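Continuing the series of single-chain predictions for the mutant panel. This is the parent chain; the variants come on the following pages.
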Amino acid sequence: MKKRRVALVTGFEPYGGMSLNPSAEIARRLDGAKIAGVPVVGRQLPVDLAQLDGALKSALAEIEPVAVILLGLAPGETCIRLERVALNLADFPIPDNAGTRARDVPLARAGAVGLWSRLPLRPIEKRLLAMGIPTRLSESAGTYLCNAAMYRALSWLPRRVPCGFIHLPLLPAQVAMALESGGAPQPSMAFPVQRRAIEIALELSLEKGAPSRRPKA
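Parent structure:
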């Protein structure tokens, strides 16, 4: 029997003392939805380098997705941030939720230095900007767990599967909570706007598939 087509959206659990992570909330809200006629499964990933591989590998094996969008939070970001490249590097600016702070650690000793996103980034950028949603391309997913998840997924999935990472701004409520505690003002984006942006990104990824050629250096 032919296996049904399913898309995967992942987000990360809260970290860094925060009680909420919009990436996990979007994954939770999209779980069970249909986009472009394709059922969506949402999964939360741990902010724990030692546990990340098992959680992500389990989700990919269980679902065998036809498209994957991984999400994460980027405090201070003003836009929906479309990541171009995952680096073969774990170099954490802060400890993960298990207290690990990786420094100068390759994610795969025999792996490529970097792996290109396989999402249709320019069409996504163009559509979201036309809808009035601030969006930009980014040259690196960083060196924290977001980058690690992107590198792993791109390494493990077949080349034909659209896959990539999108960073999200803080929610207004998160900024308000920080201000109540004496923190500095930061940019934010309303949750419905963030969710709609990811729905559009997934729709375009399902329609267009993985790019046939990698971007020029």
